[in-house]
Structures are given as C-alpha cells and as structure tokens.
Amino acid sequence: MPKNITEHICDDTLFSKAFKTYAEDLYHFLYYKFGDRLNPRDKVQEAFIKLWENCKQVPPSKAKSFVFTVANNLMLNEVAHQKVVLKYAQETPQNHTNESPEFILREKEYQEKLQNALAKLTEAQRTAFLLNRIEGKKFKEIAELLDISVKAVEKRIYGALAKLREDIEEI
Amino acid sequence: MNKEDLIKKWLDNSLSPEELEAFKKLEDYAALTKLSNHLKFFKPEAYATDKELETVMGKIKAQNTPTSWFKPFLRIAAILFLSFSIYYFASGLDTTIHTLAASKTLVELPDHSSVNLNAGSSLVYNKRAWDDHREVTLDGEAFFKVAKGSKFDVVTSAGTVSVMGTQFNVKERDSYFEVICYEGLVKVSHETQETYLRPGDSFLILDGKIIATEKTQDLGPSWLNNTSNFKSVPLQMVLDELERQFNVTVNASSVDTSKLFTGSFTHDNLETALKSVTLPFHLSYSISNNTITLKRG
C-alpha cells in the first residue's frame, strides 16, 4: 500500500473510498456476529461517522480496524443493555413451492433447527463460519478481515460446522 | 487425503476437480450440501453501499454545520471571558493617587467625598470595596471633605482617623502626625488611645509624644490657600515641607534644626518663603541648582 501524503482520512474522496471498501464487510461482520435485531446497518453508519469525527487521528491504514472496533463496541454496549436472543432475518425457501406440503414442513423444521444451532455457536465461530458460507469468503479473506491467522479461521469454521451438524442431527 | 482435510478444502472453495470427486463420494456429502444450501437463506438483504454512504455523508454534513459556527463562537466567548475577568480583576485593585513634590491634587472619591492631596503625598483606596467600608490609606498630608454616610477611615502608619461626615486635615510626615478637625466630629485612634476632635480641635504627635495644641479658628487648612502654617514645630519639619512644596533640596547641616518654628511660608514664591523661615532664626541662604544651603549669620 503506497504511503499516503495526507496522513489522515479527513477528505471526502478518501473517506468515501474507505466506506466503499469496508462498509459491506463491516455490515456482514456485525450481522453474523450479533444478528439483525441490533440494527447492524445503523452501527455501520455510526462507526463511520465516528471515523469522520476522529479523522485527524486515524491514518487511512488504520481506518478499517477503527470502524470494526468502534462498531463492535457499539454493539457490545447494546448487548449489555438488552440480552437479545439472536434471530436471523429469515428468508423462507421460496424455490420449493412446487414441492409437497410435507417436504415444505420438513424444510421449515430443518431451517428452525439450523437457526437454533447457529444461535448456540460462539460469536467468533458464527462470524467466521457465516462469512465463509454465506458471503463465500475464502479463509484468507476472513483472516484479514478479523485480524487473525488463517489457521485460526480454519479452526473456527471447521469447529462451527462440526457443532452445527451435531446439533442438527441429534434432535 | 482424509475427510477432514477434504471438508476444509470444500469450505475454502479450493478443491481441485479430483478432490471434488472424492468429496462427492463422502457419506457426509448430502448432509453438508443441504446444510450449506439452507445457510444461504440466512443471507441478509443486499447491502446498498452507495445509498448507505449517502446517508452517512448527509449525517456528517448535518453535524458539521453547527460546529462551523460553534467553534469560532467558542473562541470569541473565551476572549470576552478573559478580557472581562482581567477587567474585573484590575478594577478590584486599589487605586493609588500620588502627588509629586510641588504639586497638589483634588481627588474625588466614589461617594463624592473629596480629598485635597498636598505635595509629596499618596492616597490609596479600593473602588470595589468602597460601598462596604469607606477606607483610604494616606501617606502624607490631605484635607478631607467627607460626604455623610457610614464610617470613613483614614489609615496612616501613625494611627487611624474615623469620621462620619466632616472636614478635617490629616498630616502624617515621618515622626509628625497631626489631625485638625474643621467640621463635624473626628475620632483619632493612635496606638491604644482614642481621641475625639470637635471643630477647631487638633491632635498632634511629635516623635511619639502627644503635644497639646490650641483651638484653631481657621475654616480649613492653610495649605489649601498655598501657605504652610506651623506652631512650635521643629525647624527640620518646616524645611521638609519646604522641600516638598518647592521641589528643592535644603542643606541645613550647619544649622540646629531642632529649634522650634512658629509662623508660615507661602507656596507661591521660593524667595519669600525662604525669607519667612530664615529671618526669625537669623539664617542666610544661597540657592544653586535647586539646592538651598542654609548658613548661620
């Protein structure tokens, strides 16, 4: 990454660039970690507004970790205030409408089990696992996003998979 | 390649075609694909980056507008606050009026009491505290016309003079302390002693001793009319006064200055004044460069 002459991000173009680069990842990170109830969208906005307010102290290279940390803390503050049960915005499987009612019921049951199982995962496991499965991110990308090693990502994801299968099959 | 590695590679989407075949043959294949497919239903709504960015920028701009006037406002407020506090602090300081030799001045106090300050004297008072207690500190000689009101104090190193509303003269020079009351009632506190002066009464201390004095008939101190009056005062005191009134230096080393002088001299003419002082003692004088040398005979 070439060193920027401007040492901070107080500039519309730089700021927009940072937003376009990190906002979506941050949103997914928050969404998979804390669920939909705590308004991950708002937290992303708040985090970036904080980044703007503190733009003089934050060099562009630190912008990502700044917004991730801020947003995560914003979430944790709310989690502490209201212990919410994780609930994912659910999209019912629309492409199975021509199946038998029994099949649809079974699918629905499976989906519910899956949701419960996901809620039981640790935040770290769920975040890494869903970023991988749903957003199709590679281990390496997740490792960069979360600032952890690829090995750790692999461990989290595989652990999450094993736990999910265990939970789903035992019921 | 074992099962775990295959699954991990599948998770990372990095299976080679052969490995994919092997993976498909796993007994877990069906369960894993089903799980994976169902997980897709948890995908959140697409994140509209551009729209979100617009919202964020909008909020930032909305926040910036108030700060743009607020910051300079703070600066102005700070400057105003600072200048007011300096003014307040400075106005609380004592006011000092000082007269040089050969000059007299009229001082108007906050309550319209007036003070005539004789040459080579200084008067200190505090404007802010004036309403609480009327107090001036005097070093030298001054004539007071005090407006009616609460107690009025004149503090000198030799004692304190307190009055209610009157006219009086205070003279405090080195070992000389004299208070003459012209109107009203004046209380003089000297060390532990308190003396009340009625109009015409005077109070004199010379070298720590209280000297009895006659009643005066004057309506005001003579120095206001540009003459200095003395009654049985050591010559040294008279010469000191002469120095102050004419801004000269008197050399009287060859003369006995402890002799008492009764009389007066004018402030208008040095020669006349010198004659009034020297003739009674049969002294002669010579003037050169503001220095007056007194000689016997």
Helix and strand topology:
The complex is a heterodimer of chains A (171) and B (297).
Chain A: H1 12-34, H2 40-53, H3 63-81, H4 101-120, H5 123-133, H6 139-146, H7 150-170
Helix pairs in contact in A: 1-2, 1-3, 1-5, 2-3, 4-7, 5-7, 6-7
Chain B: H1 3-11, H2 17-24, H3 29-39, H4 49-91, E1 94-98, E2 105-108, E3 114-117, E4 122-126, E5 134-145, E6 152-155, E7 160-163, E8 167-173, E9 176-183, E10 186-190, E11 193-197, E12 202-206, E13 209-211, E14 227-234, H5 235-246, E15 249-251, E16 260-266, H6 270-278, E17 283-288, E18 291-296
Parallel strand pairs in B: 5-6, 15-18
Antiparallel strand pairs in B: 1-4, 2-3, 3-5, 4-5, 5-8, 6-7, 7-10, 8-9, 9-12, 10-11, 12-13, 14-16, 17-18
Helix pairs in contact in B: 1-2, 5-6
Describe this structure as you would to a colleague.
The complex is a heterodimer of chains A (171) and B (297). Chain A is mostly helical and 171 residues long. Chain A has helices at 12-34, 40-53, 63-81, 101-120, 123-133, 139-146, 150-170. Chain A has 7 helices and no strands. In chain A, helix 1 runs antiparallel to helix 2 (40-53). The termini of chain A are far apart. Chain B is built from 6 helices and 18 strands. The chains are: A mainly alpha (171), B alpha+beta (297). The A-B interface holds A 12, 16, 19-20, 23-24, 27-28, 31, 36, 41, 44-45, 48-49, 52-53, 88-93, 107, 110-111, 114-115, 118, 130, 132-136, 138-139, 154, 157-158, 161, 164-165, 168-169 and B 4, 7-8, 11-14, 28, 31-32, 34-36, 38-45, 47, 49-50, 52-53, 55-57, 59-60, 63.
